[in-house]
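Task: sequence in, structure out. Protein: PI-PLC X domain-containing protein 2.
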Amino acid sequence: MLAVRKVRRKLRMGTICSPNPSGTKASSEVCNADWMASLPPHLHNVPLSNLAIPGSHDSFSYWVDEKSPVGPDQAPAIKRLARISLVKKLMKKWSVTQNLTFREQLEAGIRYFDLRVSSKPGDADQEIYFIHGLFGIKVGDGLMEIDSFLTQHPQEIVFLDFNHFYAMEDAHHKCLVLRIQEAFGNKLCPACTVESMTLQSLWGKKYQVGGKER
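Result:
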C-alpha cells in the first residue's frame, strides 16, 4: 500500500528554492516544493508504493464558513444545537484542522490530500464544496489552486483521495468529475495501482495527478 504520512496540524513551511544557474541545488538547501524532482536517480524507478508520501488530514479545512449551514456530515442533534451562534463558533474551532492553504501545503511538501465533499442545501447550481462540519471552499477553486502549483513544478506528483461524499446524487458526482477534468486535463493519470507507478513513468507521460473516488 501507499505509505502516507498524515499531518494534522502545524505544518512547517520548508525552504522554497530555485535551481542554481548551474542546474544543481546546494546540498544544504531543503526544497520541499520540489522534493520529488530532487530525489536521487536510483529512486526514480522505485514503485511509489515503496516511497513515503507526506499527506495531510482533512486537507481542505484551513477555512470553513461559519455562516454556512451545518454540513450533512453532522448528526441531527448537532444541527439543532448549531442554531445557537456560540455553537457555530465552537464548531469552527474543531472543523479547522489545517493552518495552511493547498498551495502552502504543497510548498511544504505535502503530496497526499484527504478530501471530503458535499453538495450545499439550497444551492441550485449543483456545485460541490469541501466539508468538515461546516462548508469550506468550492472544490473547483481548490483543485485549480493545486493545478497552478503543479504547472510551476512539473515533476511533482499529487494524490487526491476523495473518500467521503455527503448529500450527493448522480448529478453532483458528474459535476465533481467535471471539475477534476477541468482543473487538471492531461495531468490526470489513468486508473492504475501505485505498485505499477514510478516517478519516471509518470514524468515520461507528464502525469501529475493520481487518486481515487471511494
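The helical segments are 76-81, 85-95, 102-108, 139-152, 170-184, 199-205.
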